[in-house]
């Protein structure tokens, strides 16, 4: 199982989107998580790419945030939960084991509420096998913060 996670910093530009898709196709990942796609929910069709896999998204009404998951057709998967705030929860079956794949794009503000809601949802689902991928929008060492 090959997982790939990238903060893409926008896919509204058609040439950037095409180039990104070509690079991602070469990676041959089973699951791809892209954060900060900056595509409006009504423009989700821009993100369709059968070569990358089935598309699952958490997109906003405006051109900001946004997280998407591409999951290859041959991966047994089921959407468990998604919202417009940057959370997608998928159940995948790998070697007869159910694993919860969680794709996130955490906000820079109000993170406590974001992660509290995520934690509550994970407890509600109750799957002990969890893989959280995405952009936590946090730093491990304040001295290394370049922003």
UniProtKB/TrEMBL annotation:
Domain named Endonuclease/exonuclease/phosphatase: residues: 4-138
Gene Ontology CC annotation, any one: nucleus
Note on how the cofactor is bound: Probably binds two magnesium or manganese ions per subunit.
Positions of Mg(2+) binding: 7, 36, 135, 137
Keywords for this protein: DNA damage, DNA repair, Hydrolase, Magnesium, Manganese, Metal-binding
Superkingdom of origin: Eukaryota
GO biological process: base-excision repair
Stored InterPro entries: AP_endonuc_1, Endo/exonu/phosph_ase_sf, Endo/exonuclease/phosphatase
Reaction(s) this enzyme catalyzes, per UniProt: Exonucleolytic cleavage in the 3'- to 5'-direction to yield nucleoside 5'-phosphates
EC number annotated for this UniProt entry: 3.1.11.2
Residues flagged as site, Transition state stabilizer: 137
GO MF term (any one): DNA-(apurinic or apyrimidinic site) endonuclease activity
Cofactor(s), by name: Mg(2+); Mn(2+)
One Pfam entry name: Exo_endo_phos
Entry similarity comment: Belongs to the DNA repair enzymes AP/ExoA family.
PANTHER family, sorted: AP ENDONUCLEASE (PTHR22748), DNA-(APURINIC OR APYRIMIDINIC SITE) ENDONUCLEASE 2 (PTHR22748:SF27)
UniProt name for this protein: exodeoxyribonuclease III
